Amino acid sequence: MNNIIYMDNAATTPVKKEVLDAMLPYFTEKYGNPSSIYNLGLKSRKAISEARQKVANCIGANENEIYFTSGGSEADNWAIKGVAYANKNKGNHIITSKIEHHAVLHTCEYLEKNGFEVTYLDVDEYGMINLEELKEAITDKTILITIMFANNEIGTIQPIKEIGKIAKEHGVYFHTDAVQAIGNVEIDVDELNIDLLSMSAHKIYGPKGVGALYIRRGVKTHRYVHGGAQERNRRAGTENVPGIVGFGKAIELAYENLEEHNKKLIRLRDKLINEVTEKINYVRLNGHPEKRLPGNVNFAFEFIEGESLLLSLDMEGIQASSGSACTSGSLDPSHVLLAIGLPHEIAHGSLRLSLGDFNTEEEVDYVVEKLIGIVDRLRQMSPLYENVKEEK
Ligand SMILES: *Cc1c(COP(=O)(O)O)cnc(C)c1O
């Protein structure tokens, strides 16, 4: 077994060997600027065009509807600000949910300070939005609905097709942050009525710092970066050629192996969920029991601090993530765990284990065994747990 067991694939993933091999020539011998008209430039231009075609194929889009960005955060910013400012004359209302990634939430908060109004939809205990509430929130000023495809913390997958249908019926644009969904879920932007969709390479075994925004042809939006004529005149800057090539390769591999990947991850995920909930008391699964990402596991352990849990796991070589935002200097539990109704003290004991292509069954066994010991040891030190034991 490796020294490190990496179960934080929702935070980022390692670059696959095939992806790296595809990228390498574009750092060295094929270094031309894609905007240059000579042969070396043409090589880079061709590589970008092939990658664009691959990304488009994977989501059922046309290649000229794909715009490369620096990642998921930029794609979210562009989608939301672009539509907001370009459709101001039609209305100033945006609908989103309380469990979005900060790239969406903070963009919406910024727009609120600049004359826009935002409705933040509640979610139920599983992290699902309510479609009736969505319909009721739409007014004649609504220009955009932005709801994430799948949640990065608890893995809940939203009813995207139904949301798309509602948006279309009301003549409102629909954007979805699909950073966690691509490579895990079949996506067809036409079938799902999606107008804009954000993607990122580093969550699907591609490089960091590259992603894309799908913009359906005809959607009214603003250009995002001013300067040169790159990305059909909408996002200036010399392209990240190796990154774009890597992204194209990564998404192609993800969809070639989708069925196999999902089967494996679901098996590992369910084993982890079943064993932990059977062998440890006072633990609950956060997120939806069925409509969840194949690699997502999120537990709330009562009478435990997520931070201590993470540190103890790290000492055993296990890399995971907690549901509190302590790392960012705040002691508040994540907005997602609070939105599904977890009380503060329970949200604090949350642990996200996100599985990926490189995890094995032996690793799951090892993690379960270590978790049992660590949870027991931490609870022995908890005064709250003492009270519970005495009550019994
Ligand atoms: C990781 C992530 C992002 C941000 O993507 P970057 O490429 O890291 O900027 C946005 N949304 C979700 C749901 C994510 O998981």
Automatic annotation (TrEMBL):
Transmembrane spans: none
GO biological process: [2Fe-2S] cluster assembly; amino acid metabolic process
Primary location class: cytoplasm
InterPro entries reported in the protein's UniProt record: Aminotrans_V_dom, Aminotrans_V_PyrdxlP_BS, Cys_deSase_IscS, Cys_deSase_NifS_bac/arc, Cysteine_dSase, PyrdxlP-dep_Trfase, PyrdxlP-dep_Trfase_major, PyrdxlP-dep_Trfase_small
Subunit structure: Homodimer. Forms a heterotetramer with IscU, interacts with other sulfur acceptors.
Function per UniProt: Master enzyme that delivers sulfur to a number of partners involved in Fe-S cluster assembly, tRNA modification or cofactor biosynthesis. Catalyzes the removal of elemental sulfur atoms from cysteine to produce alanine. Functions as a sulfur delivery protein for Fe-S cluster synthesis onto IscU, an Fe-S scaffold assembly protein, as well as other S acceptor proteins.
Name of this protein: Cysteine desulfurase IscS
Species this protein is from: Caldisalinibacter kiritimatiensis
